[in-house]
Amino acid sequence: MRVCWSVKGGSGTTVFACALAVAIAERHGPTTVIDLCGDVPAVLGIAEPPGRGVRDWLMGSDRDPSQLDELAVAAGTNLRMIPAGTPGSFNDGALEDLLHASHGRHVVVDFGMMRPGETLRQRASADYLVSRPCYLSLRRAARLTQRPRSVVLMKEQGRSLTKRDVQAVVGAPVVAEIGVTEGIARCVDAGLLATRLPKSLAADLAALV
Predict the structure, then answer these.
(1) DSSP letter at 204?
(2) How far apart are CA 49 and CA 41, in angstroms?
(3) In sequence order, what are the residues at sequence separation of 6 or more whose Cβ sits closer than 8 angstroms to the Cβ of residue 20?
(4) pTM score, two decimals?
(5) Where are the extended beta strands (E) located within the chain?
(6) Alpha-carbon distances of 49 from 40, 45, 52, 84, rounded to whole Å
(7) The CATH number of the domain where 21 resides is what?
(8) Contact 53, 86 (CB under 8 A)
């Protein structure tokens, strides 16, 4: 399981999580992206599936892995998505069950601004704090009581903060820099991310795939 999260809205976490899942599916085969944020269908250009989702599974008392699989819908070649479902609260124990259910599979989880627990992040195969090189994002990241294992930096033109600045503030290595371009925005707006990953984005993701 690869965990993607952020400390500030608009950081690009969902686009990164979806693009990462597409890239993994293209290179390694069947991959699942799990939506805890609620925006994955829109980013992948598919209709919002009705009914239950991963949050319903997490809130249930019997978290059977086979029932989780039944929630998945096709989202592209070798790519499945498990939708968010009903808003609600669940504990870290439920997320531990999600980790167990994902064992041995290619799974990317979009947590959005929800902060996964320390135990889950340490046991996941990758823990990515997604951030832009902006003062407000780093100000919040500096207040974290538990450091992320790694940072994915969404690069923007005109920003004065550098990779070195981000690493110094967050206290974790920047493992990838993703260029935020008009081409990516157009791809997402057109609903083509799952079928036509921009070359620049694929190149930026290569080190993580």
Answers:
(1) H
(2) 8
(3) 2, 4, 108, 205, 208, 209
(4) 0.95
(5) 2-5, 31-35, 73-76, 79-82, 106-110, 126-131, 150-155, 174-179
(6) 11, 12, 8, 9
(7) 3.40.50.300
(8) yes
Total domains, the chain: 1
Structure tokens belonging to residue 177: 């820099």
Q: Which two tokens stand for residue 148?
A: 């992320």
Q: Cα dihedral sign for 21, 5, 55, 84?
A: negative
Distance between CA 117 and CA 84 in Å, rounded?
19
List the domain range (segments joined by +) for residue 194.
4-205
Return the structure tokens found at 204: 């930026």
pLDDT in tens, the chain (209 residues): 999 999 999 999 999 999 999 999 999 999 999 999 999 999 999 998 999 999 999 999 889 999 999 999 999 999 999 999 999 989 888 999 999 999 999 999 999 999 998 899 999 999 999 999 999 999 999 999 989 999 999 998 888 899 999 999 999 999 999 999 999 999 999 999 999 899 999 999 999 99
Residue type at position 48: E
CA distance between the termini of the chain:
13
